UniProtKB/TrEMBL annotation:
GO MF annotations in UniProt: peptidyl-tRNA hydrolase activity; tRNA binding
RNA-binding found in the keyword field: yes
Primary subcellular site in the record, as a coarse category: cytoplasm
Domain of life of the source: Bacteria
Record-level GO BP terms: protein quality control for misfolded or incompletely synthesized proteins; rescue of stalled ribosome
SUPFAM superfamilies: Peptidyl-tRNA hydrolase-like
UniProt-annotated site: Discriminates between blocked and unblocked aminoacyl-tRNA, residues: 14
Gene this chain is encoded by: pth
Upper taxonomic lineage: Bacteria, Pseudomonadati, Pseudomonadota, Betaproteobacteria, Burkholderiales
The keyword Zinc is annotated on this UniProt entry: no
Keyword tags: Cytoplasm, Hydrolase, RNA-binding, tRNA-binding
Species this chain originates from: Pelistega europaea
Name of the protein in question: Peptidyl-tRNA hydrolase
Entry GO terms, CC: cytoplasm
Length: 199
């Protein structure tokens, strides 16, 4: 067991029905699934710039946040919730789409750069530190997938059918990983993310 403690889980995405099914919103999808796993519901918290759900674990309350700002202002909601509930940057787990990972893969890391991701960039700026945890949900890069789309256009469109089933599989493993993280077990959390071997 490690001494990892997660008190705030942040799903990244853009608000509004036109963005619901897009690649950029996979963080919202996983946040919704976590809320479902822990039998809690989101409530609008205007003063905290987001929708917030809460559940109890043996280690205390855990909050799940979906910012209602656009992606590039995600840090505003993260900072507001962290300040209000006195949550440190190391106790935050951010769920987000990752272009550098193919669909079907999902990876856990702590700290690091933002790789041009506007949501991560703003959280880093608002929190004054990159030392939060990230669950990187692979959506692939248009160039790697042989698509002519620009990145900005690509992330604002739904995944292709064949990619969608792969992403759904990675989100299922992400749910298991989050459960392990909430128990403080980073090793189990990492192992849970491994894609099943073919054959």
């Amino acid at each position: 067991m490690s001494d990892i403690s997660i008190r705030l889980i942040v799903g990244l995405g853009n608000p509004g029905p036109q963005y619901e099914a897009t690649r950029h919103n996979v963080g919202f999808w996983l946040a919704d699934q976590v809320a479902e796993d822990y039998k809690t519901n989101f409530a609008m918290e205007s003063s905290l710039h987001g929708q917030l759900a809460k559940f109890k674990t043996l280690n205390g309350n855990v909050y799940v946040l979906k910012p209602t700002t656009y992606m590039n202002r995600s840090g505003q909601a993260v900072r507001a919730v962290a300040q209000f509930y006195k949550i440190s940057v190391e106790e935050i787990l951010v769920l987000h789409d990752e272009l550098d990972i193919p669909p079907g893969e999902i990876k856990l890391k702590k700290g690091g750069g933002h790789a041009g991701h506007n949501g991560l960039r703003d959280i880093q700026a608002q929190m004054g530190s990159p030392e939060f945890w990230r669950l990187r949900i692979g959506v692939g890069h248009p160039r790697t997938l042989g698509l002519a789309q620009q990145v900005a256009d690509y992330v604002l469109h739904p995944p292709r059918k064949e990619d969608m089933s792969l992403i759904e599989g990675s989100l299922t493993r992400g749910r298991v990983s989050i459960e392990a993280l909430l128990k403080g077990d980073k090793n189990l959390a990492s192992r849970a993310l491994a894609a099943p071997k073919n054959g």
